[in-house]
Write a structure and sequence with these properties.
- By secondary structure, this protein is an alpha+beta fold.
- It is built from four helices and eleven strands, in the order αβαβββββαβαββββ.
- The longest helix is centred in the N-terminal third of the chain and has 12 residues.
- The radius of gyration is 16 Å and the shape is globular.
- The N and C termini lie far apart (56 Å).
């Protein structure tokens, strides 16, 4: 039996949606649902390292924005270029709910645990932190068709954001 402790030790914290227009989406989520402020980044070549998609090295680029409401983090993702699970979702299903994520204390151990349990890796990269740290890896669990799980290693310090919405007053 695999020790799933590195995976199970932390709760799911993130709900992510794929969107066609990140700028418009953060405005809607803030104005209609009161969620924000949103902090957005552009990630791709030049920031991310060791990008993979369906087991192969690739280059992809996306914009994403994060906002917290209580203990839940919302993420909006807009694919920009290259093959990605985000572009696949937009093409096959349109905008909408995409994945659930959890921050894990030991990213490599959590990955090994889920791989040993038969999870299929579908996309990953690392290096989005200001110190070159931070990693993400997406998986489909066995027997859970349509579900995507992200394992997240939070960076110590994020890179400068592309924007914050709404902008700080002052």
């Amino acid at each position: 039996m695999t020790d799933l402790t590195p995976f199970l030790d932390s709760p799911f914290k993130q709900f992510a949606l794929v969107v066609e227009d990140l700028d418009a989406s953060v405005r809607v989520w803030h104005e209609c649902f009161g969620i924000g402020p949103w902090t957005a980044w552009r990630l791709g070549p030049g920031v991310l390292e060791d990008m993979t998609y369906l087991g192969k090295p690739v280059e992809f680029e996306f914009r994403h924005a994060l906002a917290w409401q209580g203990e839940v983090q919302f993420e909006l993702v807009q694919p920009i270029s290259g093959p990605s699970i985000f572009a696949d979702h937009l093409r096959e299903h349109g905008p909408g709910l995409h994945h659930v994520g959890k921050y894990v204390a030991d990213h490599p151990a959590a990955i090994q645990a889920v791989l040993a349990e038969g999870f299929t890796p579908i996309q990953s990269a690392h290096g989005f932190g200001a110190k070159g740290d931070g990693a993400f890896a997406y998986f489909t669990p066995p027997g859970a068709a349509g579900l995507i799980v992200e394992l997240i290693e939070a960076p110590q310090v994020r890179i400068e954001p592309e924007f914050v919405y709404p902008p700080a007053a002052g």
